[in-house]
């Protein structure tokens, strides 16, 4: 007997289901309220449930797996071409049902609660850093209106902040000066909150042997290693290092016709946060070569622009990360791959 395939469009309150009875060929469309969803599926025979990889998808995937169902998460851009009519919940559910049956479809790995918890720390830290940067730029811009030019750089600028306020005493009202001082205290709170999150990530790292192995790679630090392990989970879901680099958007876009293929700039698909971390780490490796210079980087810099070299190094780091996690290896800076001879 063939397992029933369900296409489910997620929402905050009402879920839309679409499935076909294989025995009769009858098409079913049903709306189920959030609180009744698990009750509906617990009374159904185990089947395949497909959803878009959107908000709350990983939670529902974990819960439905506990009921014995097989869950497949699909990236939203793969579902869109199968929407036949206007975008409605019913049309989306039908498109998901259609998409999951494609033989070459790729699916998103379901994340555990631990993985999502670590990623939540990363998201909160990222937001705090953005707000802190906005606050510093605002203070710099406001003081510039009064003839104060703080040095470039967050730490250098804030170091001279008290002296800058002292020069403005008597020129600005106490109301404005006190507000500036409160903004400075708020920045100190941001620094403390960011440091606390990084301490929690360090504690989590102690129980993750994979994170320690990744941090041995030049350019891979605490944030990059913990984010990759939490995002990917099982690296064997990628068939090769190039596929993992493609997942991160670090490979060229292709445009071809008539048998001719042109390679363009990097695709920038996938997880922007991971790609940013790898790019920053790669830039540090390229810019900070002092001892034990890498001949590969030097040769590449002699014929390619600086940013191209940085992206190439980020791509190389991604492939190295895949090799360490997928093949359970330790990082060896002197490792050389050996080509397998074929008859």
TrEMBL record:
GO terms for molecular function: DNA binding; transposase activity. Keywords: Coiled coil, Membrane, Transmembrane, Transmembrane helix. It comes from the Bacteria. The chain crosses the membrane at residues 210-232. Residues 7-145 form the Transposase IS110-like N-terminal domain. Residues 180-207 form a coiled coil. GO terms for biological process: DNA transposition. InterPro entries: Transp_IS110-like_N, Transpos_IS110, Transposase_20. Residues 212-292 form the Transposase IS116/IS110/IS902 C-terminal domain. PANTHER family: PUTATIVE TRANSPOSASE FOR IS117-RELATED, TRANSPOSASE FOR INSERTION SEQUENCE ELEMENT IS1111A. This is Transposase.
